[in-house]
Design goal:
Helix 8 links the parallel strand 10 and strand 11. The protein has a nine-stranded mixed beta sheet with strand order 9-8-4-10-11-15-14-13-12. Strands 1-16-17 form a three-stranded antiparallel beta sheet, with no helix packed on it. It has a three-stranded antiparallel beta sheet with strand order 5-7-6, with no helix packed on it. Helix 2 crosses helix 3 and helix 2 packs antiparallel against helix 6. The chain has 16 helices and 17 strands. The chain is α+β, with helices and mostly antiparallel strands and 476 residues long. The longest helix is centred in the last third of the chain and has 25 residues.
């Protein structure tokens, strides 16, 4: 049978009517509207006065939806042009520019927008907690961190392919920007992001403190009692460690793990560890890792006492690409070492059995590697490239990308929370399964009906998500 004859009687025309591409946009926009985000953002801009043709809250919601669908520039808001019967005509790229620029210019405006986001987030988290699956507490090493909000801080590089304000040489010898962000590991939301020039340092204390503070401000009051920060080696500065220790209050417990740059003093302490001090490490599912071991070096390392932290060391067999970077101790012992610092005491976490074990702390910190997935997620939603030559507009675009991450996360957690495949799916998966789904718009008796394919594998997920979002109560 000739399998290449399928197109012999096929013709293609461009005169279809009532067709809607990217039908998943209705889910994203419904989430933004039903949770109150669109109205809250519009209310902030309304305080500025004036009477723009476009409601700025609607504009930002539309832009965030376009970014979630895959837009990488202001001009690509045209992705929503074929949704005009539903949303009305999309704003022009010049209108978007005029809306984004004040965000970068006015720090007070950014502060008000952040408070509006936090207010809506409080409402959304309460709704998420009320779903059948409940709030997504982190599961690490086979244990559930009930009650703990885990925040990952990490910086990423955004390459600039043209001359843009603020772009400069990066530490990886590229050219562009070096933003720092805080992600919520529980929900995969981007809580705070600071756009920085390419020359910004990896361990700049003022930037880390600012992002930490803004991330905490985004956490609803009812969820702030227990917070765990995870940072890579950029967090190993004495001032930042002291700042995080100082965040503990009578009403809030803060724990952290940070990467640790190994010095000669640390290697000397590792060398003094007895053979019996090493214990097998565990994987994220709680099973024993066959090629990694952990030990505590706190009592042998004078730097631990000076910093007031515990030091845990992990060793693994080095790979071939590690060979050129091994120290003399690592060459001598045949192991590659890494140290993390933490303020978690030897008793562990109250209510989490087994959390006092070294293996548990090591597994929690290694789960920080998932932040790289969230970095890719954010880059997939508007941050692979900054669209403007102007710094202020790019600051506004970063906010829109963060809103896109919020809407994406809320749609999944509120409408798809019990779908094992889609509840924590990455943007590309959701675009294929739901967001880019084609549909036909039918109008009758002044009502619109969006019809999707009856044979599409994720049809029920789409319909269920719409029904759940439509039933959400409005914020009070």
């Amino acid at each position: 049978m000739n399998g290449t004859a399928w197109d012999h009687r096929l013709s293609v025309q461009g005169d279809g009517k009532g067709l809607i591409g990217h039908a998943g946009a209705v889910l994203l926009r419904k989430c933004a509207d039903q949770t109150g985000l669109t109205r809250a953002l519009g209310g902030v801009f309304a305080r500025l006065g004036g009477s723009p043709v476009w409601d700025r809250g609607v504009l930002l919601a539309q832009l965030a939806v376009a970014i979630t669908l895959g837009a990488t520039s202001m001009r690509q808001i045209a992705l929503l042009a074929h949704h005009e019967p539903l949303f009305g005509p999309p704003p022009s790229d010049s209108t978007i520019r005029r809306a984004l620029e004040p965000i970068g210019q006015d720090e007070l405006l950014r502060s008000r927008l952040a408070r509006a986001r936090a207010r809506i987030r409080r409402h959304v988290w309460d709704l998420i907690a009320a779903t059948e699956t409940g709030f997504p507490w982190l599961r690490v090493a086979g244990k559930v961190l009930t009650g703990w909000i885990v925040i990952d801080l990490d910086a990423t590089l955004i390459t600039a392919h043209s001359d843009k304000e603020g772009a400069s040489a990066t530490f990886k010898k590229g050219w562009g920007f070096h933003p720092l962000a805080g992600w919520c590991a529980n929900t995969q939301e981007s809580l705070a992001m600071l756009l920085r020039t390419g020359t910004a340092g990896s361990n700049t204390i003022t930037d880390h403190v600012r992002v930490l503070s803004e991330a905490i401000a985004q956490i609803p009051d009812g969820f702030r009692a227990k917070i765990w920060f995870r940072i890579d080696g950029a967090g190993a500065t004495h001032d930042l460690v002291e700042h995080m220790k100082g965040l503990n209050t009578t009403r809030r417990t803060v724990r952290f793990t940070v990467g640790w740059k190994i010095t000669d003093v640390d290697e000397a302490a590792i060398a003094r560890l007895p053979a019996g001090a090493w214990q097998p490490a565990v994987r994220q599912d709680g099973t024993v890792h066959p090629h990694a071991e952990v030990a505590e070096v706190t009592g042998l390392d004078e730097r631990a006492a000076a910093w007031g932290v515990r030091l845990l060391v992990r060793r693994v067999k080095p790979s071939a690409r590690d060979a050129r970077q091994l120290t003399d101790l690592e060459k001598q012992t045949g192991w590659k070492y890494a140290i993390i610092a933490t303020n978690l005491g030897p008793r562990g976490l109250r209510g989490v059995p087994g959390s006092h074990h070294l293996q548990f702390v090591d597994a929690v910190h290694r789960d920080h590697a998932e932040v790289e997935d969230r970095v890719r997620t954010n880059k997939a939603m508007g941050l692979r490239n900054l669209p403007s030559k102007t710094w202020n507009v790019n600051v506004g675009w970063v906010l829109a990308a963060n809103l896109a991450a919020d809407i994406d996360a809320w749609t999944r957690l509120l409408g798809l929370h019990d779908d094992a495949e889609l509840a924590r799916a990455e943007p590309q998966t959701l675009r294929y399964c739901l967001w880019h789904l084609p549909a036909r718009l039918v109008s009758h008796a002044r009502r619109h009906t969006l019809k999707i394919s009856s044979t599409w594998p994720w049809k029920n997920a789409f319909l269920t998500c719409w029904q759940r979002l439509s039933a959400l109560p409005a914020p009070t």
